[in-house]
TrEMBL record:
GO terms for cellular component: cytoplasm. The gene is gltA. PROSITE patterns: CITRATE_SYNTHASE. The active site is at residues 272, 329. It catalyses: oxaloacetate + acetyl-CoA + H2O = citrate + CoA + H(+). This is Citrate synthase. InterPro entries: Citrate_synth-like_lrg_a-sub, Citrate_synth-like_sm_a-sub, Citrate_synthase, Citrate_synthase_AS, Citrate_synthase_bac-typ, Citrate_synthase_sf, Citrate_synthase_typ-I. Belongs to the citrate synthase family. One of its GO terms (biological process) is tricarboxylic acid cycle.
Length: 390
């Protein structure tokens, strides 16, 4: 006999766990809006921090609000030297996503007594701390993975420029920012800023619902994002393209293997729980892929391979009947690669992009007096009562 059981809903396909004012998606029509603003308009015209403010506080910032927000973030970029030692305690080949989530969790130990979810001053300061320090941790995770020394943040630089320098600068030489690359990366990060109740955001909310602080919640969100069905797909797409190219297998044959579900092989970067039409983010990324590679002077045959794969899949009954279209991860990897990021850093970039959304959703839940601890039901399918042999 089940008690308290309502409905079985694997993967929460039909269950809303919250109300939210932040992001609107119409998956049938391929629409995505942050606080009412269409994603294409924001990606084209806004800055990353402007969109972060919009997501967190509900309206576009005034000039003064944005300047103050930017300034406060710049003042919080330094990591405690003790935290920097954390990186050298991990194997140099450690995956940057594991380093990022662990270091985010470790970050909270520097703010004991300053992370109370019921203290608005703590909450607001930790939004600034996380926005300021996570890109630095991410860049150090990248540097650790390639065995290079860390640079101190340069707070005269903007958010994205600083991040690029921390990733690609080296101690001995001045780093020249490429404005084309900086703007291209900023646009990609804006596209990732929020996506309503996806797996990592739901994780952030679930952890936050227990009264856990922003550091614990964001760290858990990073773990959830790392999986290949979620943010880890951008890394998996590049691996898939690389394997097809190296094996010499035809794209058509690869697609046949996907359709036959041979060895569980999937077309990574395709399909989405919510979009049953072209992912509006993927549309923008695809448009900019050619442009960015061209501007960066990169000619990557993997981009042509990705296009061929897309073309074949979109004209195939298997993908059409299941409404499978490219998602945001299908073309981003090719651009990140052209920028010089190693494949293993791609999902870290997704995390830096998604951070404002996680913070906005955590804060919205924290301020919602209707929110309760998240606690799904189950349908028990095990043994009935048994007697332990006396
Ligand atoms: N390749 C081949 N078949 C697929 C794919 C794919 N990428 N995606 C879904 N299908 C098939 C699936 O096998 C199923 O077929 P059938 O009805 O014969 O069993 C049908 O389409 C429905 O798929 P589903 O698995 O029930 O759909 P879902 O909503 O549970 O999963 C998904 C969504 C994104 C996990 C899935 O499409 C997938 O695994 N895609 C590849 C991984 C990927 O690109 N993830 C990034 C998502 S977007 C970025 C983000 O927000 O994280």
């Amino acid at each position: 006999k089940q008690t308290g059981y309502t409905a079985l809903d694997y993967g929460f396909v039909n269950t809303a766990a919250t109300r939210s004012d932040i992001t609107y998606i119409d998956g049938e029509s391929g629409i995505l809006r942050y606080r009412g603003y269409p994603i294409d308009q924001l990606a084209e015209n806004a800055s990353f921090l402007e969109v972060a403010w919009l997501l967190i506080y509900g309206d576009l910032p005034t000039e003064d609000e944005l300047a103050d927000f930017d300034e406060r973030i710049r003042r919080h970029t330094l990591l405690h030297e003790d935290l920097k030692r954390f990186f050298s305690a991990l194997p140099s080949g450690a995956h940057p996503m594991a380093v990022l989530s662990s270091a985010t969790s470790a970050l909270s130990t520097f703010y004991e007594g300053k992370t109370d979810p019921d203290n608005p001053e703590h909450v607001e300061t930790n939004i600034i701390r996380l926005l300021a320090k996570l890109p630095v941790i991410a860049a150090y995770a990248h540097k650790t993975s390639i065995g290079q020394a860390f640079l101190y943040p340069d707070n005269s630089l903007g958010y994205v420029e600083n991040f690029l320098r921390l990733n690609f600068g080296v101690m001995s030489e001045p780093y020249e920012i490429d404005p084309v690359m900086a703007r291209a990366l900023e646009r990609l990060l804006i596209l990732h800023e929020d996506h309503e109740q996806n797996a990592s955001t739901s994780t952030v909310r679930l952890v936050g619902s227990t009264g856990a602080d922003q550091f614990a919640s964001v760290s858990a969100g990073i773990h959830a994002l790392s999986g290949p069905l979620h943010g880890g797909a951008n890394e998996a797409v590049l691996q898939m393209l690389g394997q097809i190219r190296e094996s010499g297998e035809s794209v058509q044959r690869f697609v046949e293997r996907v359709k036959n579900k041979e060895d569980g092989v999937k077309l990574m970067g395709f399909g989405h729980r919510v979009y049953k039409n072209y992912d509006p983010r993927a549309k923008i990324v695809k448009q900019s892929a050619d442009e960015v590679l061209d501007q960066l002077g990169v000619n990557d045959p993997l981009l042509d391979l990705a296009k061929e794969l897309e073309e074949i899949a979109l004209n195939d009954e298997y993908f059409q009947s299941r409404n499978l279209y490219p998602n945001v991860d299908f073309y981003t990897g090719v651009i990140y690669k052209a920028m010089g990021f190693p494949t293993r850093v791609f999902t870290v970039l997704f995390a830096i992009g998604r951070l404002p959304g996680w913070l906005a959703q955590w804060r919205e839940q924290n301020l919602d007096n209707k929110s309760k601890i998240g606690r799904p039901q189950q349908l028990y399918t095990g043994e009935p009562e048994r007697r332990y042999p006396a």
